[in-house]
Design brief:
Length: 361
């Protein structure tokens, strides 16, 4: 017997969605960090998100990596450690099964780098990891060396990146004078990228004094004596040397970096082209677009739902925050508020069947 519809969902809306789902041959799913929240992984912009207490410019940009690669590696060592402890939840398994049942016409575009979708058995050809994968690494010398290593699940990667050791180490502080300034070249690069994305809507503005000032401490810094947030256990000044970090085994002259897309970097060319091809004018119409667990604030992913609309898709948003649904059309689109791990298996049940036991597979 099927489980009852979760009380937060409108049975009429669910029935309408089910009717469309059962007829859909081309489905695009767009995933954000919210789908992994039930697996115990922090989202990015939520109340307890990864960016709370962290300066994005220091831990997730090329400039931050050049300034202190040890700090960046500490941040990603923590994320790798947490992702390895986590397990795929019913939402990951439900999407993987939907892909198998529908076939090649069902494609998932994920911003997540946690590797939980692959671990849930999502068909590789139908999963586009837009922002890379925490467990892939490559040499910083992309042109001269080009070494790439996929599926490296060692934890820790080096003794100095032992998460347990870092969690018990006193947290350092970066004084305002020590904080790296925003790189004008990086700002210019971001402006060019935004111009490509927004077209005529883009308005060019010169960097302000604040843009070029030393990076500020994040709002809501930890109060003395308060229990630290998980990410706050990572020292804010690494003090690590090049020898402490993962070394390239091929050239033996450079360090490795995570194969993830940082702020200010473009998506991998092949991945970006494959994603855009789904929405091309000469592509087949799209029947349904699922937008799951994303705030839709990071481009180009934030624009995929609108591209799908133009290809004929109806949009279904699954999120804890209804405000994250963009451009809703009354009577055509749906918003299902709740935990994706609970909501998604129910929404997809007419196609995927019962989900009991998947998480044990």
């Amino acid at each position: 017997m099927s489980e009852p519809t979760p009380p937060t969902l409108d049975p009429t809306e669910v029935a309408d969605f089910h009717n469309v789902l059962k007829q859909s041959k081309r489905i695009v799913a767009v995933l954000g960090a919210g789908i992994s929240a039930s697996s115990g992984l922090a989202t990015f912009r939520g109340t307890n998100g990864l960016w709370k207490g962290q300066d994005v410019m220091q831990v997730a940009t090329p400039a931050g990596f050049r300034h202190d690669p040890g700090l960046v590696w500490q941040f990603y060592a923590y994320r790798r450690h947490e992702a390895l402890k986590a397990k795929p939840n019913p939402a990951h398994y439900a999407l993987a099964e939907l892909s198998r049942r529908v076939g090649p016409g069902c494609v998932t575009l994920t911003q997540n780098v946690d590797n939980l979708s692959p671990r849930a058995g999502h068909p590789e050809a139908q999963l586009k990891q837009l922002h890379g994968n925490l467990f892939n690494v490559h040499c910083v010398d992309v042109v001269g060396c080009g070494y790439v290593e996929k599926g490296n699940f060692e934890d820790p990667l080096t003794p100095a990146l032992n998460t347990a050791r870092n969690e018990t180490t006193a947290i350092g502080r970066i004084e305002p004078s020590d904080r790296p300034k925003t790189n004008p070249m990086l700002l210019a690069g971001l402006a060019r990228k935004n111009a490509q994305i927004l077209g005529d809507k883009f308005k060019d503005q010169s960097p302000s004094a604040d843009d070029l000032s030393p990076l500020k401490a994040a709002d809501g810094e930890q109060e003395p004596g308060a229990r630290p947030r998980p990410m706050s256990d990572i020292r804010m000044s690494s003090g690590l040397s090049k020898e402490d970090l993962p070394q390239c085994p091929r050239c033996k002259a450079n360090i490795m970096r995570p194969s993830v897309v940082w702020f200010g970097e473009a998506l991998a060319e092949t991945t970006a082209e494959e994603a855009e091809a789904l929405f091309a004018e000469d592509a087949e119409p799209i029947d349904l677009c699922l937008v799951i667990g994303t705030s839709s604030k990071v481009w180009p992913t934030a624009g995929y739902a609108e591209k799908a609309r133009k290809r004929g898709a109806r949009i279904a948003t699954v999120n804890l925050d209804a405000g994250d649904a963009k451009g809703l059309r009354p009577g055509k689109d749906w918003v299902f508020v709740g935990d994706a791990a609970q909501v998604l298996p129910e929404l997809l049940r007419p196609v995927i069947g019962e989900t009991e036991g998947w998480e044990k597979a």
